[in-house]
Request: fold
Amino acid sequence: MAILDNIPGWKIFSTGIGIAALVVVGWLVYRWQFSSPSDLKQLQQEATVHALDQLTQTYVEKVRMEGEQRIVVMPVLKDTSNGQIRDMIIRRLNKLDGVKADVPRDPSLEERATELIKSVIKKEDSRPDPMSVFAKSAEADEVISVSVEKLWSGTDSGICEIDVVRIVREKDKAKVEPTLSIKGLSGTARSEPGSTDEDGPGFWSTLGGFLWRMLVVLAATAALPLLAWPGIRAALKADSNAMNGGLLVALTVADLVVLFALVSFQFSTTAVVCAGLLLPAALLYNFRIMNLIEER
Reply:
């Protein structure tokens, strides 16, 4: 080390290596201990979110009727996302007012719940007593187990089908609710046949809306100078170039205001292009009408 210390720049180089090593170690610790899994593809994740949105509606209603709910979320069966789906379930439930979701903190609870859930999945006649699941975990109101039945995504759509088994505690007894099957969709799979939300109003409806608005704008452009005829005559008699220019600009701006008012002042590409075409035409028309009034 003494020899290396005599090499010019070695101390700076070694310090840089040490800092880089600390950064790498810190990143690995964060990645393994704190960051959420992110193995799902984008469309798969969106489909999972859609499924979980349906699941959470059950607890929104339950909180409203029964008050705060403490839920234990079991490991997700048939999950290939490295735990991401379970993490999403817990995070999504904890966003609800009155719901506290967590993993099983008591190993014995997980063992008893797993035994009961297996008997439910296999449809066995003899099952453990559901109340035994809460024997040493009286603070839990419900234990849920999610099984992924289908998780798929293509180029423009995704599907997430899950089955949910709920073990619910009710005072001094407990029961297993019927299995809840939920399908989540994403991308083009979310659009339903005949749905106007995704397909829009249709070509002819859009064309009709464009045409009637265009006719109203043209009519307003033609009528405004004529309606303002007395004011234009008074301005022309004042023989003020500034007043004449201001009047020309005001009439043209009024035409543009009519155009944007018809589209609720939404500055879409179509509206801006139409305004760009209307501007020179309205300026020329208003200028010619002002000249006509002046000649008369």
In short: Confidence is low (pLDDT under 50) at residues 193-200. The two ends are 102 Å apart (CA to CA). The first helix runs from residue 2 to 5.
